[in-house]
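Consider the tokenized backbone below.
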């Protein structure tokens, strides 16, 4: 089994910065990248402005994103134009997509050459995670959560023929299936 030592998160908005914070909380270094802001000057700080702002927002968030503010130092920053080469040796790369629908899932499958039969979408939202992933030909794992935002509620569709849908009460239950 690969031991995860280096992680990358692409997209440093609300979700991306907090996922990076969770990696830091787990003691893992994380490289966090985002687009170069429109109109940015040539300095590194300006070109990495969105990522720096994302980390600052995560530091101030309540409930806290970081177990301790000092953990933010575990996150390295960059941007897609200057730093994409730095993701090559990562063990785990997470791309945060702006929206999630069938076309987005299909594009992710195409872009990364994913093999549909061994690709699983895991999530708590029937509307954004499970139904569009099934529609895009992926397997799905639904982890229902009582606090799921009302706009994400939807009837969970059955898996089409040849695809699988697992429903588990807790993430840890996945060990019983994989
Ligand atoms: N915010 C939440 O509470 C929440 C909860 C669950 C799921 N999500 C999901 O997370 C995803 C991101 O949501 P968010 O709240 O972090 O959004 P956000 O707007 O805070 O962040 C989106 C990030 O994507 C970057 N971006 C914009 N255009 C881009 C492009 N063309 N190429 C690459 N990057 C680009 C932006 O710079 C920004 O940093 C969405 O799919 C959303 O449904 C969000």
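A designed sequence for it:
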């Amino acid at each position: 089994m690969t031991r995860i030592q280096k992680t990358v998160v692409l997209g440093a908005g609300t979700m991306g910065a907090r996922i990076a914070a969770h990696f830091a909380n787990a003691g893992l270094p994380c490289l966090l990248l985002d687009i170069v802001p429109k109109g940015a000057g040539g300095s590194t700080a300006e070109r990495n402005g969105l990522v720096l702002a994302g980390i600052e927002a995560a530091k101030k968030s309540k409930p806290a994103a970081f177990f301790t503010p000092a953990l933010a130092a575990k996150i390295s920053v960059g941007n897609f134009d200057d730093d994409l080469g730095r993701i090559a040796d990562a063990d785990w790369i997470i791309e945060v997509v702006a929206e999630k629908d069938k076309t987005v899932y299909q594009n992710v499958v195409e872009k990364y050459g994913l093999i549909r039969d061994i690709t699983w979408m895991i999530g708590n939202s029937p509307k954004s995670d499970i139904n569009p992933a099934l529609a895009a030909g992926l397997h799905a794992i639904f982890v229902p959560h009582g606090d799921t935002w009302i706009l994400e509620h939807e009837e969970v569709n059955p898996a089409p023929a040849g695809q699988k849908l697992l429903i588990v009460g807790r993430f840890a239950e996945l060990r019983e299936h994989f």
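The chain has a mean pLDDT of 96.
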